[in-house]
Amino acid sequence: MALLTIFKKARYGLLAIGVAALVFALIIMGAQARFLAGIFFDSGISLVSAFYLTWSVLYGGVSEFSLTTALVATISLLFGMNVAAITYYVRLYRATAVSAVAALGTGGVLSGILAVGCLSCGSLALAFLASFFSASSLLIFIPYQSPVFGLISILLLALSLYLLDRKLRFAFAYSRSK
Amino acid sequence: MLKNFLIVSAVVVLVGGVTVFLNKEEEPNTTRNIAGTVILEEHDHFLGSRSAPVKIVEYAEVECPYCKKLHPILLRILSEYEGQVSFVYRHFPLTIHPKSFNQAVALECVAENKGDSGFFEYLNKLYEATPSNNNFDLAILPRLAKEMGVQEEKFAECLASDRYRTRILRDVESGIGLNVDSVPHLIVIAPNGKEFVFGKSPSYAALNAVIKTALNEK
Predict the structure, then answer these.
(1) Cβ-based neighbours of B216, under 8 Å, separated by 6 or more
(2) Is A60 in contact with B213 (Cβ distance < 8 A)?
(3) Residue in A with minimal Cα distance to B135
(4) What is the average pLDDT across A76-89?
(5) pTM of the predicted model, to two decimals?
(6) Domain Thioredoxin-like fold: where (chain B) (predicted)?
(7) Is the peptide bond before B184 cis (omega within 30 degrees of 0)?
(8) Burial state string for A15-50 with b = 16 or more CB within 10 A and e = fewer than 16
(9) How far apart are CA B32 and CA A142, in angstroms?
């Protein structure tokens, strides 16, 4: 598996974990954006208190495990892996970086973008596309707190990784044959 | 590699910052003075002392799964800060859960007989009984009320009447006035009137931190 070869390299493993941690933090804090905006811009509390409250939001997101947390963690990790794999691929073809990105295929990149999730709706991009295609009425059939969007995001990110893996295997085989 | 990571980090932080900024633009008054917005009413249902220095006002409905999940966290906070924190429940039944309006009426009918303590005992029972997402069996409302010693006939008459409709809609209107657009929606009011607004269900850790901060705001 080409992806394993990449993640065995410390720098790409760290890149994947770093991006995953950032995305996880952003999603957890994004869910409380209104609260955070309030404490930083309107409440008049000290900056120390504001950072303490921000930390408590993050800490609560990590320490109070739930299905939602598990979905967010999985989405973040898969997203981090996608970023690391794409970075490796682009570096492999640095000379023709633009064409290399194009060569990744719309499947991998698009499905990765679509799958970026938020805590409550699962995927902003999916929700947007649903409304774009006048399919938002279908949302009422998805129960409140349903993990449907989150699961779709995970499937799309996994598909993206699979497509990247295929491209990378092809690239490895090609470079060995030269 | 470090450069790539920094670029990705910068993009992620930038997107986050824009999200928070846009949120602020949409809701410029998330933290307000108590006199200006959250006005505690005589008819509000209080759990804990009305004179407690910190008050948590919750807009909620029984069929919302997030509200059901948050409820034990609120009860835990109340027991840990006994005498320092009180809880105000306001109805905000969503149209996607029509049964939550019937539950709101039933809660008011129980309160009519048993006061605020009965209101919150019945609320606990409803949360325990409901599978959420409008899957509650309305037929069990009288049984749950009877278990608490509410007279069947009185309860049935109250449910059939329309007398609490306006009361519930007043809660909804007050919520709309406070930019409540989803439930649960929490407003923690500090002793000096500062408000901390959670538009989404907070974790125990986050709510606990806000209570600690609010208690220091004198």
Answers:
(1) none
(2) no
(3) A143
(4) 87
(5) 0.76
(6) 42-212
(7) yes
(8) bbbbbbebbbbbbbbbbbbbbbbbbbbbbebeeebb
(9) 35
Contact B187, B178 (CB under 8 A): yes
The β-bridge relationship of strands B85-91 and B45-47 is: antiparallel
Q: State the residue for tokens 């941690």.
A: A21
**Of A20-24, B21-25, B50-54, highest mean pLDDT:** B50-54
Cβ partners under 8 Å of residue B86, min gap 6: B46, B47, B48, B49, B50, B52, B54, B55, B56, B78
Place of tokens 């007279």: B151
Cα–Cα distance between B74 and A78 in angstroms, integer? 34
Instruction: Please list every residue in chain B whose beta carbon sits closer than 8 Å to the beta carbon of residue A144.
Output: 64-66, 96-97, 132-133
Contact A49 B213 (CB under 8 A): yes
First to last CA, chain B: 49
Check: complex ipTM more than 0.90: no
Report which of B47, B103, B51, B96 is spatially closest to residue B71, judged by C-alpha positions: B47
Q: Which phi and psi angles does A31 have, rounded to 5°?
A: -65, -25
CA A19 vs. chain centroid, Å, equals 8
Q: Using a CB-CB distance cutoff of 8 angstroms, which residues of chain A are in contact with residue B65? A: 144-145
The percent of residues in chain A predicted with pLDDT above 90, rounded, is 19
Report the residue count for chain A. Answer: 178
- The arithmetic mean of pLDDT across residues A122-144, rounded, is 50
Give me the residues paired with residue B46 across strands: B88
